[in-house]
Amino acid sequence: MRVATLGYQTWGHRTLQSLLGSKHEVVLAVTHPKSDHAYERMWADSVADLAAEHAVPVHIANKPDEAFKAALAEADPDIIVANNWRTWLPKDVFDRPRYGTLNIHDSLLPKYTGFSPLIWALINGETEVGLTAHLMDEELDAGAIVLQRSTPVGPKDTVTDLFHRTVDMIGPIAVDALDLIESGRTDWTPQDRSQATFFHKRAPEDSRIDWTWPAEVIERLVRAQSDPYPNAFTTFKGQRLRVLESSVSQGCYGGTPGRVFIHEGDGMVIVAGPDAWSGRNRGLSIERIRLDDGTEMTGKEFFPHGGGYLGT
């Protein structure tokens, strides 16, 4: 089939790379311009550069304007394959090709539609994550499912681990889904939209630790903001602390959320939880932090003794 790709960053790059190595003909690659946004500077393999290396026509656009539509019309693809395209597509774009538009989304739809699905899934304690190849319709991430692939989430996995595992799944699911579509199958699985969850883009404030959250959730937040993502952070006496490693405390501790309390091993336990006053909650042991100047220390080194509060 003649394929046009819509993609950005490493997700779009891997999609294009897989299609260039397949039996299908890539006739156009559309991508966004480079951005200085923190999340868009990560995993920033260039779709435009890869397309140019393989003599594939490139169109750069933020949204589907008239020039975008003209480039698509000239390419005349049988199908569009989208992955990490960041702006809304109208029906006259996604429905224009003979087979429509196949979108690759990095969640197990209908859960985690929208943005940063791996981060939100890890925060929420999901036991598996994955990819969904679905046909695009007028509702975001809601079209019929062609293929899904999953991978388990381990108790120590970071979002960086999950990124690498799922990004390696992009090529196989994209090519396999195209082959199924080309075969003439149309018995795709409709999504149960009553099970859908929709998440917003991440912003710096989303990485700030809320000490009224249970320690188990804060520990997952830390793993969901592993390098090179903007780390989970808190403040102490006006200084920002980026939390690199943490664990749920062995003991139960009571008091006020955010209280710097007691050492466990090389960590300093912080009182946490919505009912910390009860004394029945585990705390969060901060095991490694990074200061804004890049200095890294264990929790015990930074907090030689208990006292004071985080997040104030």
UniProtKB/TrEMBL annotation:
Gene3D superfamilies: 3.40.50.12230. Pfam families: Formyl_trans_C (PF02911), Formyl_trans_N (PF00551). One of its GO terms (molecular function) is methionyl-tRNA formyltransferase activity. Keywords: Transferase. Residues 204-303 form the Formyl transferase C-terminal domain. SUPFAM superfamilies: FMT C-terminal domain-like, Formyltransferase. Residues 1-169 form the Formyl transferase N-terminal domain. InterPro entries: Formyl_trans_C (IPR005793), Formyl_transf_N (IPR002376), Formyl_transf_N_sf (IPR036477), Formyl_transferase-like_C_sf (IPR011034). One of its GO terms (cellular component) is cytosol. This is Methionyl-tRNA formyltransferase.
